Predict the structure.
Amino acid sequence: MTDDGAWQLRESYTFDRNVIAEIRRAANTGIYRIRGWGAKRRLPILDDLVFLGASMSRYPLEGYRESCGTDVVIGAERAARPVRLDIPVTIAGMSFGSLSHQAKEALGRGASAMGTSTTTGDGGMTSEEREHSSTLVYQYLPSRYGMNPDDLRRADAIEVVVGQGAKPGGGGMLLGQKITERVGEMRTLPVGIDQRSACRHPDWTGPDDLQIKIQELREIVDWQVPIYVKVGAARPFYDTALAVKAGADAVVVDGMQGGTAATQEVFIEHVGIPTIAAIPEAVRALRDLGVHRGEVKLIAAGGIRSGADVAKALALGADAASIGTAALIAIGDNDPGYDDEYRRLGSAAGFWDDFQDGTDPAGITTQDPSLSARLDPVIGGRRLANYLQVLTLETQTIARACGKSHVSNLEPEDLAALTVEAAAMAKVPVAGTGWIPGA
Amino acid sequence: MSPAADEAPPDPSSAVAVTVDLGETSRRELNRMLHQAQAGSFRVLNPRGAHGLACGLDARVSVEIEGSVGYYCAGMNKQGSVSVNGNAGTGLAENIMSGTVRITGSATMSAGATGCGGLVVIEGDAGSRCGISMKGVDIVVGGSVGHMSAFMAQAGNLVVLGDAGADLGDSIYEARLFVRGDVESLGSDAVQKEMRPEHVAALARLLDAAGMEADPGDFRRYGSARGLYNFHIDDIDAELSARREAS
């Protein structure tokens, strides 16, 4: 290529090929881009933190021998039946409708095998997930699709969803391809419509109302189970404080990397704050109110992928971490074995995010029976259990290296930041310094 | 009567209503009693605007509350019959599944919200968002309803003998709205629809069930234009491609 040819092919940083393609797509269709997955652009993430490990002043635990606890109890102060988790990793809310019933069953099987919880989504509770989930958290969403007192009483915990990380301030979405007869019946919606759920709860409008709502829910279930409040990470200090004030047993803070079954691209990439920035602010609120590591538990979500991420979330002050996208990958989402089919859909294994289309070759984000039959829920469950096992082992490995006999003893003092941004957000020093920007 | 530890528990199967005085008994005790009862009648005194009264009923019990109640009275009611001789706060009979809830006064915001079945009768007025996201419940309001009533209403019937506030039925799905008085404005995708004989008959049954005296012929019906059911997606490329093939 000549010098002039190279000049002619110089790509604009502002109008790169992705931007140009999106402008052309928008001009052709007149509709915003809708997709699944979570934020894909580069963000400050937990990789920007490192553990310091033991040294002359810190004693490690024997990595392969000494016990390192991983259990978490939620709601012991108020619920007759607190949630008792064996590991500090839970499965985040994902609906039947967005996922096939085989996928929901696989999630339940995997979580149960490891002694942790799974969570319903914006579509009610199915018999499959109740049957295969030893601990099932029932989401109470603005849409109230499928909400009923029988399922409320069958749940092991109730999660009042105020928002989710992929779209704080937005409601759910499920396109017509996935509103089958069963999904439509559960949600009382006509088959084939593009469901756009409410973003506000229909019968409460603020934290004072929420407090009364939580009391009502407790009354309906006779104070048997804990109540969580889930917020999309936007103003985590205030949201956490208000959730505690409203009476939550646990606050779930979902960072902007959190996944979705279908949301506007502009929402996914441009609304909310990263998980690394959200956790310390939520912890600050819990500490202010004297309930951190005590009466109210914090569950952090959004882009959790590894035991290192779990350990970092705990060190920043969370009591547990929650996974969604990673759990779907574990049970088979974006399986390279289906690469040819992903390519026929215009993508490739490892890149595909059109969960809204219902054409998932792996049979997970679909309601097409011929596709969903491809997912063996028993095998999927085993894969998830294995993955959760690895997350737990990795978390314990780091905790022992930091001298902790329980993973919840991890603390910010165990961390250093690799970037100034991460240091400012996580409120830990830049590595090799004592400097915390803004402290 | 307030059941104390040394007293025999109330017998709700008795033909005589069990009286519970909330001046002496806690809400928790009342609801526990109601949840344990399989049948029978209860009379509740001195509610004093308390929240969450008689919520979560799951049996054919009858509850009569003498006075005004706070938020979420009879929430998620299933099978039970709850009547309030007074007014009700936010979320009266929210997510009701079956049974009947009736109040003699007025209800504030979100009465009958997300209700899936059963009948809610409000003899007075209802505030904003009455019947929001209703999913099969029948709601009959003797007076008027506030703005954004039947917002995103999915199924069931809302009958209003008085007027309706602004944006009635915004983003409505398949619920049916019957209004005798004036409608300040209709919300997005809500339209007036023909009142056919089957609608007159259905409305007559609803009025009868609610014990309301009104001529069904005086009502107008509103529902969904179904224009928001699916995204509108243009496809200019396909159009141009077809043109090229045709030329």
Q: What stands out?
A: Chain A has one domain: 35-426.
